């Protein structure tokens, strides 16, 4: 207990002394060791990297999860090192409600059958959104969080140590400067007119004491300089590592963009299906292609439709094809008679 109290008192004394020294530096009343220009540039680059990484990280979180309550819940689960529970996306919920409504209204009715088609599309959109959120969280948010909570904390800790070493070094310089001034004053030529030689003896004794004080201050300065240089090198190496951090974040950014592009492509494909949702005699107008965009095509090979959104083909038959905005370039909308659906481009020979 006594040791803790003494240590606390000592730390408080050091903190107060450094606070006074720091204030005097700001007022120009104390000496300050300046870092070289390259080091200052490294510090500025590190601060800029931290600030922008933090802003990008926070805004990406908002993009992936707009609900602030859900973000807080996920944050708490991460801090407690527990698995985040699975949560349905809004698209998946909407699709589920449409499918349940179709069951009640009757899947054989025009409204019910259309609800089934649209509900399936909404579920696919929700699934694509979930996949994008998971990929972006792992490939992009994870590395940014690791930098802010890992590398940056280490850099900040070493920078604080360097600042303390600098303050210690400057304090040693100040003590040495004062000791040398006192030594010079004590070693000044004594007044030999003095009738009592005792003053000369005291002056010589004081000069010897101040000489010892100068030697001690010089030794402390050498130690402080060594510790400052060592800590400066450690901090410099960490700051220079910011360059590799940029390279890593660039790779993660590419993965984020690729995941986002895949997500938007999936949305475009589902959007094309939604445009082709039609009723069978229920009074709802069919989606008609723009006349200028229609072409004739010859089927090269037989093709069996994978689902109700696609059109089965027979080799050598002629069909009408066209595209819709946002549709996958590997597919076209095909029509033959009263049938319509997606067809793969590779199975067709487009005719002029």
Automatic annotation (TrEMBL):
GO terms for cellular component: cytoplasm; membrane. The keyword Coiled coil applies. It holds the Pfam family BAR. It is found in: Cytoplasm. Residues 292-352 form the SH3 domain. SMART domains: BAR (SM00721), SH3 (SM00326). Residues 24-290 form the BAR domain. It comes from the Eukaryota. Keywords: Coiled coil, Cytoplasm, SH3 domain. Coiled coil: none annotated. InterPro entries: AH/BAR_dom_sf (IPR027267), BAR_dom (IPR004148), Endophilin_SH3RF (IPR050384), SH3-like_dom_sf (IPR036028), SH3_domain (IPR001452). GO terms for biological process: membrane organization. Its main location: cytoplasm. SUPFAM superfamilies: BAR/IMD domain-like (SSF103657), SH3-domain (SSF50044). PANTHER family: DREBRIN-LIKE PROTEIN-RELATED, SH3 DOMAIN-CONTAINING. Homodimer, and heterodimer with SH3GLB1. Belongs to the endophilin family. This is Endophilin-B2. The lineage of its organism: Eukaryota, Metazoa, Chordata, Craniata, Vertebrata. The gene is SH3GLB2.
